[in-house]
Amino acid sequence: MLQHWCFTFFITAVIHGHVADATTGFEEELKHLKPQASASTQTSAAQELIKRLLPTRYQHFTVTVNPAIGSDDHLDSFEISADGTTVQVTGTTGVATVWGVQHYLVHYCNCHISWDGDQLYLPPDGQWPVIQPLLRVTSPNRFRYYQNVCTVSYTFAWWDWERWERHIDWMALSGINLPLAFNGQEAIWQKVYLKMGLEQKDLDKHFGGPAFLAWARMGNIDGWGGPIPQSWHTNQLALQHKILKRMRELGMIPVLPAFAGHVPKSFCK
C-alpha cells in the first residue's frame, strides 16, 4: 500500500507540475515511520550479522547503535574509527551501523560484498587500515527502498530461511531500510475469505502458483500454476514471521501488502 500510494502521489504531482510539493508531502506523510526495535536490540542484531559475515575476524569490530549521533532531519549516519587493531563503528540504526562496516570493508580493505558471494581478503591482525580522526557519513536519503511487486516471483519464491537470512544481511550491509515483505499473504487472505463464506475450491481457482504469485496478486491472472497446497501457506507464513523479526531487529521498516482490490470470482455470489 505504501508503495502504491507513493507512486500515485508522485505521478499526480508531476502531472500538475508540483514535484517539490510532492516531495515535501511525501516526507511529511511518512514522518512517523521509524525503527520499532530498541537501540540495544539493534546493536545485538548488528553484532550477530558481523559474526555471520566475518566468523573468524568479527572480534576486531566493535559495533554500537546510538540514535543520538543522528541529525534533526532523521537521516541515517554512521561513524568509523580504526587504530590498526580495532575498528569501531557507531550508527543511528542497526542498518546504518552495519552499512558503516560495509563501507570500511569495501573502501578501506578493498573487499566486495554481494548477494551471490563475497571477496573478504582481510588485512593481517594489527594492520587494519587506520581512520583517525573518525569518519562520519550521512545518508542523503531517509528511506532506501528495495524490491518491486514482481521480485517475489523471480527466485524469492523458492528461498528458505538460510537464503533469506543471507539476503537480509546483504540488505542491511547495503544500507537498505525500506524493503518489501510480501511472503505469506495468501495464508491471511485464505483465512479472511473462508471467514467471509467462500470455499477452499474458490480460493484454489484464485491463488496463483508460487512462481506466479506476483501477477496473481495484481489481478493479471487467476489460479495459474495452482492450486497451492496448505503446506505452502503454513511454511510461507512461518517464514514471513522470521523475515519480519530479523528486519525489525536490524532497524528496517518492512513494507507489508495491503488489499489490492482483487478478489476471487466467486466473491460476487
TrEMBL record:
<dbReference type="InterPro" id="IPR029018">
    <property type="entry name" value="Hex-like_dom2"/>
</dbReference>
<feature type="domain" description="Alpha-N-acetylglucosaminidase tim-barrel">
    <location>
        <begin position="144"/>
        <end position="267"/>
    </location>
</feature>
<keyword id="KW-0732">Signal</keyword>
<protein>
    <recommendedName>
        <fullName>Alpha-N-acetylglucosaminidase</fullName>
    </recommendedName>
</protein>
<feature type="signal peptide">
    <location>
        <begin position="1"/>
        <end position="22"/>
    </location>
</feature>
<dbReference type="Pfam" id="PF12971">
    <property type="entry name" value="NAGLU_N"/>
</dbReference>
<dbReference type="InterPro" id="IPR024733">
    <property type="entry name" value="NAGLU_tim-barrel"/>
</dbReference>
<feature type="domain" description="Alpha-N-acetylglucosaminidase N-terminal">
    <location>
        <begin position="45"/>
        <end position="124"/>
    </location>
</feature>
<keyword id="KW-0378">Hydrolase</keyword>
<dbReference type="Pfam" id="PF05089">
    <property type="entry name" value="NAGLU"/>
</dbReference>
<dbReference type="InterPro" id="IPR007781">
    <property type="entry name" value="NAGLU"/>
</dbReference>
<dbReference type="InterPro" id="IPR024240">
    <property type="entry name" value="NAGLU_N"/>
</dbReference>
<dbReference type="GO" id="GO:0016787">
    <property type="term" value="F:hydrolase activity"/>
</dbReference>
